[in-house]
Design brief:
alpha/beta, 2-enoyl-CoA Hydratase, Chain A, domain 1, Immunoglobulin-like
Length: about 475
């Protein structure tokens, strides 16, 4: 299973990116998926295969164009997405189908006709997304037409420009600058130090001018010589020794400032879930800005997906898990001083009975009652009763499975399926009994002959009828070989 539900289409379609690999990845996914695209295109029919695979996916498909979606990659992104998001500064390029060929004039004419047909087909993909007529897009596809992220949204090819990435970068940049200003202020004593926008171009501190009546002069304060800005002038303005200021500034401008976040989070330890049930688990504590989460370890048979920016983990239990089983998921938090692995313990509880659903409480253990008196069980006896209940539940599941196997064996005995298909039919019954009965059990009895052909004793008949009966048996054997 793909716990991240993210598929990359990075590279040439049909070469670096194969349709069969995309289909295999989709088969491993459950729930909504993200597809990230950065491709100049490639083989048109491989692109059509990937497009239809994304269309067949049963849940929501969100496609992000990270760099460029050109040619075949463009119609995969436009036609295969339920929602298409352009990353900032990304591009989308469309054009008509093209090819290389050789041959006589008839062959070249046929190639041109094929290319026109393919281009008409691709124009309908853009038309379905935007509502514009295919002829509108067919005209634009006569030459390479490139859309910026904003233009793609305006044209209706895409649904949005991803502003989250742009905001995250700006926030990080502002945090670094704020830390630089803070460290500089501390280094010189914090005495009215002007804000510094960049290290390369720091504005000079304000120069105090003396006034006489209504006439302003440009005479420097006592102790300054000339109006030029210098270390001595800045030191006097800040009230520190020039050498001390020079040393502080030297350390500041040669030091890199790294802004990090401290991740102090944990998940609750009392999360429970019933077989085939699902539960959402949220981390305890405040999630620092910029921290993202990913599921890095999922127990066998279970499924888990985490919301990237909140850390809320959705856990789904398998059907065959036993009550009181405890498993652990691992969620990694990124964006702090270092990645932090968080353990999420989940315990399986028995499915609630009708009385539990009505009262919301666990029922008291069954105990014999005599004369209106309540008998209290000791913990050891209660544990034995609980274990017996679990054993009974397991026996019930085994009984159900045995019944399915017996039904398949009856199909083999009645000649509805061959013995060679028994294992496949049993597996299908475990997945979906109704579908398996429709595919295998609905075959007429006697479809597969049970008697040995050529050795059975024929009923006494006239010679012509015996010959006809033998011909029927030989013909049936031939048909079976092609089944």
């Amino acid at each position: 299973m793909n716990p991240l539900n993210e598929i990359l289409i990075y590279g040439d379609i049909g070469f670096e990116v194969q349709a069969k690999d995309i289909v295999a990845q989709l088969n491993e996914c459950e729930g909504p998926i993200n597809v990230r695209v950065d491709s100049f295109g490639g083989d048109v029919y491989a692109g059509i295969s990937i497009l239809n695979a994304l269309r067949r996916y049963p849940d929501v498909v969100t496609v992000y164009v990270d760099g460029i979606a050109a040619s075949a990659a463009s119609f995969i992104a436009v036609g295969g997405a339920d929602r298409l998001v352009m990353s900032p500064n990304s591009s989308l390029l469309i054009h008509g189908a093209w090819s290389q060929g050789m041959g006589n004039s008839e062959e070249m004419a046929q190639l041109a006709a094929d290319l026109n047909q393919i281009t008409d087909n691709l124009a309908t993909i853009y038309a379905e997304k935007t509502g514009q007529e295919p002829s509108y897009w067919r005209e634009l596809m006569k030459k390479d037409t490139t859309f910026t992220a904003e233009q793609a949204v305006e044209a209706g090819l895409a649904d949005a420009v991803d502003e989250m990435e742009k905001s995250a970068r700006a926030e990080k940049r502002h945090a670094v600058m704020a830390a630089q200003r803070s460290r500089f202020a501390e280094s010189v004593g914090g005495r009215g130090v002007p804000e510094i926008e960049t290290r390369a171009a720091a504005p000079p501190p304000p120069v105090t001018r003396s006034e006489s009546g209504n006439e302003k002069t440009t005479t420097p304060l006592d102790g300054r010589k000339g109006d030029a800005m210098s270390i001595q002038n800045l030191a006097q303005e800040l009230g520190v020794e020039p050498d001390e200021l020079r040393k502080k500034l030297s350390g500041f401008f040669n030091e890199e400032v790294t802004v990090t976040a401290t991740i102090d989070l944990a998940y609750p330890e009392d999360t429970t879930v019933v077989p085939t049930g699902a539960v959402e688990v949220a981390p305890v504590g405040e999630v620092p800005a910029g921290v993202t989460f990913e599921v890095t370890e999922v127990p066998d048979g279970w499924s888990g997906e985490v919301v990237e920016d909140t850390g809320v983990l959705k856990v789904t239990a398998p059907a065959n898990v036993e009550p009181d089983t405890t498993v652990e998921f691992t969620v990694t938090a990124n964006g702090g001083d270092a990645p932090v692995e968080l353990i999420v313990p989940v315990m399986v509880k028995a499915a609630a009975t009708d009385s539990e659903e009505e009262t919301g409480e666990d029922p008291a253990p069954a105990a014999p009652v005599s004369g209106g008196d309540t008998i209290t069980l000791d913990s050891e006896t209660y544990a034995e009763l609980k274990a017996a209940a679990q054993h009974g539940w397991k026996a019930m599941e085994e009984q159900k499975e045995a019944a399915l196997v017996a039904e398949v064996d009856s199909w083999v005995k009645e000649g509805r399926i061959s013995a060679a298909r028994r294992t496949k039919a049993i597996a299908a019954m475990k997945r979906d009994p109704e579908a398996a009965r429709d595919i295998y059990g609905s075959n007429p009895a006697g479809t597969i002959p049970r008697a040995e052909i050529g050795y059975g004793k024929d009923v006494e008949q006239e010679p012509s009828k015996n010959l006809s009966a033998k011909a029927d048996k030989v013909g049936f054997l031939s048909r079976k070989n092609f089944h």
